[in-house]
Amino acid sequence: MSGKSTIYAFLGVGLLTTLLFVVMPVIFSISLSFYRMESFVGVPEWVGLQNYVSVLSDFEFWRALASGTIYAVLSIVLQLVLGIGLALILNQSFVGRGLVRGVSILPYLLPTVIVVLTFKWMVDGSVGIITELLDSFGLPDVRWFETPSAAMMSNVLVSVWMWTPFVTTCFLAGLQTVPDSLYEAARVDGTNAWQRFIHVTLPMLKPILTVVILLRGIWMFNKFDVIWLMTKGGPLGSTENLAVMSYRRAFAQFDVGGGAAVATLSFLILSFAIFLYFRAFPLETD
Amino acid sequence: MAEIELRSVVKKYGALTVVHDFNLKIEDGEFVVFLGPSGCGKSTTLRMIAGLEDISGGTVRIGNRDVTHLEPKDRNIAMVFQNYALYPHKTIYENMAFGLRLAKLPKQEIEKRVAEAAKMLDLQELLGRKPKQLSGGQMQRVALGRALVRNPDVFLLDEPLSNLDAKLRVRMREEIAALHQRIGTSMIYVTHDQVEAMTMADRIVIMKGGVVQQVGAPLRVYDKPANVFVASFIGSPEMNLFEGRVGGSDAVVQEMRIPLGRNPRLTDGVEITVGFRPEHVQVGEGDLKFTVNLVEQLGVQTLCSGTCNGLFMRIMIERRDDLKKGDVLSFAIPEGKLHLFDKSTGSRIDQADK
Question: Number of Cβ pairs closer than 8 Å across A and B?
Fold first, then answer.
């Protein structure tokens, strides 16, 4: 094969896959949002923007948007703070560093359902280890899923537990690219450890940080599995985000068009947020 | 401005000692070069003076202060790194001003100092740029400028020219030497390049395996290398060195006999290492016969490698256009240009013509 046809062959596979598994479902889903449809069998009925009107005038949509945003922001901030802190610790030299680095990534490698089940067992009212521990310290029981704020915190907690290692790994990789001489120059300049973090580490890792926040932002905003497995959006819909709402409308309430409208709106909101994000933090190019 | 004194300074990593009992007093305003092959401990010693490495034993004094256990910022030193170590996200101005800001100097004073340094190093046009918009030579000048604005007691330069190309290196060498003359602050300069050491230093400290081999002015080190290592390390092309013994009034190396002249009163049969520099042979005199194998034209001079009595050596003579492989030249080594070393210890055997 000549150079050109090789390029087209490789591009073709990628384009075809993207077309089949990304572009077409998106278009299909967007088009569904203009129809009334009660299931995937039967004939959809064109209703124009009526699904959007109904969704946007539904307070559940705004609640899900707010709750999903709170969930995403809280869990990203905590993941970043903990992830960066862990990366800084794991970048020091100490005995058994390799082992600790290996173990620290474990939560990220586990399937979500395992992590969620483990968490549920740990806080189980009769046999959970956390319940036991709280008991033995004489602390009151925590009702992990019963109030809206407790359920939200539980979701955030599990998400932070699972995805902090991703931030740690990215940051740790970045830290190893910062030349030691920059830290030494900063020491000669008279910085303390905190100033070195602010003036050397953070600016050097800004490109990584930009990408990590973006990726985590997309993933947390669209998060379905953790919330569904933990709370199913409850209690009383208080932890439901747009992904869960879209699913619930389409598959539990048999309003496929409404579900598709929620998904489409979610897509638009996220796209707009990413647009604003890139305006604020342009990716540096050399 | 201050003297720097290192007393019995030692650096160990666990059981491994990388710098042994280092003693040196650097006078105020002196330009001292630490020279040696990689791994000889020269950079480690510099970094101990800077405070970037812990000192395992001994003391470092700058001026009247014992700085052995002080942080780098409290030693009043400035350092220039091999890879410049400029903050990539800060402008040139901010790079130079950063240390002064941290020291909480008044804004006007910072501006004044940066402006002066920028003028001295011809950086005025670059102050608003970021490091990656600069060439290697410009970045190195900024690194010097950052050191300059601190008004340090001593400049520490760690292989500052290694990342530059050959031509720029020569120019920056001159600029650093000129800067030193102008500001008169002590400088300690680490390099593995003996040409840099010879051309810039007031005194050279030659190191090997963490041990100081010789301390002295460049020509002194060139003329009277303290041992075989220094003899071979200083000078380009390398000194010709042969192991042999004293035989009557000659140094005997296999079949080759080099007259010792009025040199030493050495006992017959003593084992020695004998050396002479390629540039010191006198061609057309004497009884030694050199057979040319390879001719390298350097312009003013001609460098030949070949053999004498089967022993490989190099000689450097004034330009000769006619030499070719197989030619035989007779040569002699003038008195005082022959270096004798104890074969077992490698130390110089001091000679009568001292």
Answer: 56
Secondary structure string (H, E, C) spanning A76-102: HHHHHHHHHHHHHHHCCCCCCHHHHHH
Cβ distance of B89 and A203 shorter than 8 Å: yes
Query: What is the set of domains in chain B, with CATH numbers?
Result: 4-229 (3.40.50.300), 237-342 (2.40.50.140)
d(CA B341, CA B348): 4
B126 secondary structure, DSSP code: G
**What 3-state class would DSSP assign to B334?**
coil
Spell out the residues 6+ positions from residue A160 whose beta carbon is closer than 8 angstroms to its own: A75, A78, A79, A82
Specify whether the CB–CB gap between A245 and A262 falls below 8 A.
Answer: yes
B295 interface with A at CB cutoff 8 Å: no
Asked if pLDDT for residue B315 goes beyond 90, the answer is: yes
ipTM over 0.85: no
Q: Enumerate residues 6+ apart whose C-beta is below 8 A from B354.
A: none
When comparing pLDDT for A251 and B297, which is higher?
B297
Distance of CA B267 to the CA centre of its chain: 35
Mutate to test the interface with B, among A189, A192, A199, A209 (most CBs of B within 10 A): A189
Domain residues of chain A, as ranges?
A: 1-27, 54-280
> Which chain A residues have a beta carbon less than 8 Å from that of B99?
188-190
- A54-280 has which CATH code? 1.10.3720.10
Indicate yes or no: CB of B85 within 8 angstroms of CB of A200: no
* pLDDT tens digit sequence for B104-115: 889 999 999 999
Local confidence band at B254 (pLDDT 50, 70, 90 cut-offs) = confident
pLDDT digits (tens, 9 = 90+) for A163-219: 999 999 999 999 988 998 999 999 998 888 899 999 999 999 988 888 899 998 899
Using the predicted structure, report yes or no on whether residue A286 has a pLDDT greater than 70.
no
Task: Please indicate whether, in this complex, the C-beta atoms of A184 and B79 are within 8 angstroms of each other.
Answer: yes
